[in-house]
What we know:
Blueprint: E1 2-6, E2 15-19, E3 29-38, H1 41-47, H2 52-55, E4 61-62, E5 66-74, E6 86-90, E7 105-109, E8 113-115, H3 122-126, H4 129-142, E9 150-154, H5 159-170, E10 174-179, H6 184-190, E11 194-197, E12 209-214, H7 220-224, E13 227-235, H8 240-252, E14 257-258, H9 266-278, E15 285-290, H10 294-303, E16 309-313
Parallel strand pairs: 9-10, 9-12, 10-11, 12-13, 13-14, 15-16
Antiparallel strand pairs: 1-2, 1-4, 3-5, 3-7, 3-16, 5-6, 6-8
Amino acid sequence: MKAVQITSFGAADVLRVNDVERPAPGAGEVLVAVEASSVNGHDVIVRAGELKMVSGRRFPIGVGLDFAGTVVEAGADVAGYRVGDRVWGMVHPRQRHTTGGAAEYVVVSADRIAHAPVNISSVEAASLVVTGATALIALRDSVHAVSGEKVLVRGAAGGVGTAAVQLAHALGCHVTALARDRHAPLLTELGADEVLDYGSTTSDRIGPFDVIVDTVGSELHCYRSRLAKGGRMVTVGLSAGALAAIAASSVHGSRRIRTFSANPDTAVLRDVAGHVTSGALRPVVDSVYPFADIAAAHQAFERGGVVGKHVVAVSA
């Protein structure tokens, strides 16, 4: 089979589509024929060598965190999945992989997949695995947003941001989206009650908010100050500065900044699928790249300005 791998850390041009042996599922695992994968920040920082504690330094290293495709084989002790089932899921983000979701086939534990929503394509599904799960965990499990609360989504036009806007709206929250002004029509369509241009809006002139969902990872202390009494803030845009702000918030105030590493299991993926099926969550795909052009997809991700997700079509 063909799989995207890196044999050295660096820029997007280190990505290679290599011929490798097709894996076989063990007990509790499934083999999935991948139809699409997306580009996530995790993929980029692994490729750049910024996550060696997880990826290790032994090459080759697989690329691609998420995938959507079809079950072609199930190992022993796997229940609930049959050959031909459409599924979505992700490889474990804290384990080393020689092949990842950006491959023609991937083997994963059955507790890391779920049946994909029937009302969207595999390309659309791949755009929502990480983003939908991250937004759902952030709003439901991390900050416990409830109907009637005022929610700010910072970086609202990105993959997690567009999902968070939709899910916060579905919860009955009043949603303020902070993004580029040109993205206002889309964000309003997705459920934002108000869209603010991040280029001309300073943190000291907005709020207060009951909940802040941050996908950027900078100026966290400034936005934390815009929380109402009892407010909660979560960030998924991690950096050295973000980690320092998170640590300081836990020491110096009750309105601490929360964070987490999205690592959804079957239950979370099923919940996301339920929101897609109900129409509360829809995919937002910026662009689709052929498998052979995954380097271009990584380069586009790093340039920024993405609306939704960059998706890689592995098979037609």
